[in-house]
Fold this protein.
Amino acid sequence: MIRTLYLAGPDVFRPDARERGHELKALCAEAGFEGLFPLDQEVPAHVTEPAAQAAWIYHANIALLDRADAVLANLDFFRGPEPDSGTCFEVGYAVAKGKPVFGYIPEQGSFAQRIRRRHPQAIGADGVLDTHGWNIEEFGLPLNLMLSVPAPLVVGDARAALIQLARYRVPQT
């Protein structure tokens, strides 16, 4: 049974990140889950060196991921035509641990269509390659296959994803 959800996503970088965390946790509670938001933890005051702070945050987030039964991931584009790299790591970590992952994105369309629509400046003149001449992945999936295949992706917001997640139940092993 899924009871706890690690709330992955770039929401931690928002100017109102703590408030957003409270909103997400409230949505989880409405759906019958406990939300675990990374910013619920505070770096101890004695950890002042930036590399030590980063290491503390990493280990604290891994502990939350380990504690969670599943992951709810905001996989919208972040700072360009890809999801947040930290969120992608968290999704991969959860998948490797055998935890269900549910992602959400704001609009329909394949990965290539979504890039063309929201980040046309990243597309080359031929519409097939990016501006650096690299292929744009096109399998008809909404994100890179390494995210789309293991994680059901809901079009909508966190609430829409929680509705889908509430219908999904897996016995814990």
Observations:
- The chain has six helices and five strands.
